[in-house]
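Input/output pair, single chain:
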Amino acid sequence: MSESNGSRRTRRGTHRRRSASAVLAAVGGLLAASAAVAPAAHAGTDVPFDTRFDQHCLTVNGVPTDEITVNVENLGPGQGLTSTGLVIAYSTVTPGNVVDHTDNSWLAFDASRQTATATFALPNPSAADTLKLQVTGFWSSPTTPQSAVTIPAPVVNCGTATAGNPNVFSASNWSFSTASATATCGARYVWSRTGGFRRLPWETITVQVGPDNKNMWGADFAGMPVWVDYWTDGGTVGYTQGATGTSDVNGNATLSFTATPTAGTEFDLMVNSRNTGGNTFAQHLWAPSCS
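Output:
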């Protein structure tokens, strides 16, 4: 079963609490000077990280919700920089109304994966809203921002989406690889003296991942690590580690893990392949949760 937010933050590293609005206000000049576009994939020329995100419509407790998933790769070590943390924040903007969302600050990079993943739930979004995603990096000082990127995009009008349908708007293309997922549902029964048999559901998720053979080829991934992490939908910080493996000589891998499903939700999957150059190529997938 997915871990609590608290345990996720502990696994991810120290989660220092600070208002994202305060931090973003302090770096306003830097954000204004930054180009309001996403950095080129793995270029590492504008900022020492590579930011990808998408939006996913779903229904949470009967409310149409825009789930925004952000994946950031740490390119700093290749430039001799050691990160002290990230602020991943977002604002929804309509004419005359800017709302800063402050519940996701000081996200640490996963030391082994060299990435950070966060998901924000935006309840009942308006079709008129504009999303402004801001990612700020702190590399040698926990108080002085050194890198920032601002990405504007329209908010998905989830109020018109079919509940549970993964209508995805991708503000920046995910990295060059292909991935797909299937789910197998089952249950086991445990005898309880007080309540008879107790049903314990399980779900096995299998992920196939490989190169797209257009931009990246099998040799680019051969023998390199590949992994999948997961969380349940609805907005959260962090993830549960699912499975790890190694790409074969053709850059393909099959990963499988078993989790406890939650009725009425689905699993978010972040599938990552590392290439021989040391960069990580991520794909965001969804798998239905067994009822």
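The chain has a mean pLDDT of 75. The helical segments are 5-12, 20-26, 28-33.
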